[in-house]
Amino acid sequence: MLQAQAQRNGQLPGTSLRGKSRGFTMIEIAMAMLIGLVVTAIAIPQIQYGLYSYRLNSSISMATWAIQSTRFQALSKGYPYQVVFTASSMNYQIQNLPSGSTYANVGNPIPVTSWPMTMNQNTTINFQPNGMVSATVGSNSFTITYQGVTATITVSNYGNVTVSCSNNTITC
Question: Is the pTM of this model over 0.85?
Answer without folding.
Answer: no
